[in-house]
Amino acid sequence: PAFTFDPHPSPVDADERARLLVDPGFGRVFTDHMVTIRYSSAAGWHDARIGPREPLTIDTATAVLHYAQEIFEGLKAYRLADGGTALFRPERNAARFRDSARRMAMAELPEALFLESIRRLVQTEREWIPTLDGGALYLRPFMIASEVFLGVKPSAEYIFAVIASSVGAYFKGGAPAVSLWISENYTRAAPGGTGAAKCGGNYASSLVAQAEAIRQGCDQVLFLDAAERRWIEELGGMNIFFVFDDGMLATPPLTGTILPGITRDSILRIARDLGFEVREEPYAIDQCRADAESGRLREAFACGTAAVVTPIGRMLSRQGDFTIGGGGPGQTTQRLRQTLVGIQTGVAEDRHGWLERL
Ligand code: PLP
Ligand code: COI
């Protein structure tokens, strides 16, 4: 479908925007416009529009409100060192969005339409990219089941939308290293479940575990596998990597219960380019504790679009806590972070053609 553009009648003025962009935090400052595209099984994808960001008015019997048929994505538009604007591997988000839709029995948005939505919104909202270090325009594409019907079945209608938020660091104070609470009471995803899909329900079910982590004085929850409660999976909203004393790196394999992170995939590639050996293999929590105590495990870090690369300094559970390496940012972690951010901001060589200039 062709896009229509309805400019916002009263966009935020330049002074107010500048004030909001000084310290935007994460996910609280929104731009003026949004994309919406509608779907019905009879008409297909139609009504593609960029218009003012405004409330969606939906019936109280709309399917998403009852059975949570909803998916989303998260990616950033970066301000380049030369003043340009770029996306990082957006085609991977488009593909993952389709995979998520399939898992949730939703209509699949063609990848070209996903990408066109993102590009158009970024072009419209370029001025909202913060200039602060680590700042970006966080894009949130999502889709909801919009049929008005209470039977339990895949919706025949959907609304796809993209909103944008000016963001700084995800962790307050740009935390030098975060701490993890090892969740024993709760798991995130079981084999055959929705762990590899980016659906809202995964996050709803993680909140009680995350709240427990906060109560224990930790920044994030670490989930173990649902079957044995033994193998490290991922955090509530990030993948995890380990760095060993022999220079080897490891990250849990994609077995269907963790989100296939685009940052994870990029780190795997970058680490190999830098000459590291990287293994995608299961890592047991008891082994992790033993390796941290013996010094074999030197560093650990979380990675994701929002978190970028964040060092993990400490892990806590009912069995007690342990420190990883010196408890602060490790050398390898910093080197990987610097290379990734360098590519994303156009100052490091983009060997794999990951950057899309707009
Ligand atoms: N794991 C979970 C559960 C996430 O929500 C995210 C964030 O999107 C990630 C991992 C990292 O994925 P990506 O690197 O594609 O942002
Ligand atoms: C992202 O990194 O894009 C996510 O979805 C994670 C969430 C914690 C904001």
TrEMBL record:
Keywords: Amino-acid biosynthesis, Aminotransferase, Branched-chain amino acid biosynthesis, Pyridoxal phosphate, Transferase. It comes from the Bacteria. NCBIfam families: ilvE_II, PRK13357.1. The keyword Manganese does not apply. Its EC number is 2.6.1.42. Pathway: Amino-acid biosynthesis; L-isoleucine biosynthesis; L-isoleucine from 2-oxobutanoate: step 4/4; Amino-acid biosynthesis; L-leucine biosynthesis; L-leucine from 3-methyl-2-oxobutanoate: step 4/4; Amino-acid biosynthesis; L-valine biosynthesis; L-valine from pyruvate: step 4/4. This is Branched-chain-amino-acid aminotransferase. Its cofactor is pyridoxal 5'-phosphate. The keyword ATP-binding does not apply. Belongs to the class-IV pyridoxal-phosphate-dependent aminotransferase family. The modification N6-(pyridoxal phosphate)lysine is found at residue 198. InterPro entries: Aminotrans_IV, Aminotrans_IV_CS, Aminotransferase-like, B_amino_transII, BCAT-like_C, BCAT-like_N, BCAT_family. PANTHER family: BRANCHED-CHAIN-AMINO-ACID AMINOTRANSFERASE (PTHR11825:SF44), SUBGROUP IIII AMINOTRANSFERASE (PTHR11825). Acts on leucine, isoleucine and valine. CDD domains: BCAT_beta_family (cd01557). GO terms for molecular function: L-isoleucine-2-oxoglutarate transaminase activity; L-leucine-2-oxoglutarate transaminase activity; L-valine-2-oxoglutarate transaminase activity. SUPFAM superfamilies: D-aminoacid aminotransferase-like PLP-dependent enzymes. GO terms for biological process: isoleucine biosynthetic process; L-leucine biosynthetic process; L-valine biosynthetic process. It catalyses: L-valine + 2-oxoglutarate = 3-methyl-2-oxobutanoate + L-glutamate; L-leucine + 2-oxoglutarate = 4-methyl-2-oxopentanoate + L-glutamate; L-isoleucine + 2-oxoglutarate = (S)-3-methyl-2-oxopentanoate + L-glutamate. Transmembrane segments: none annotated.
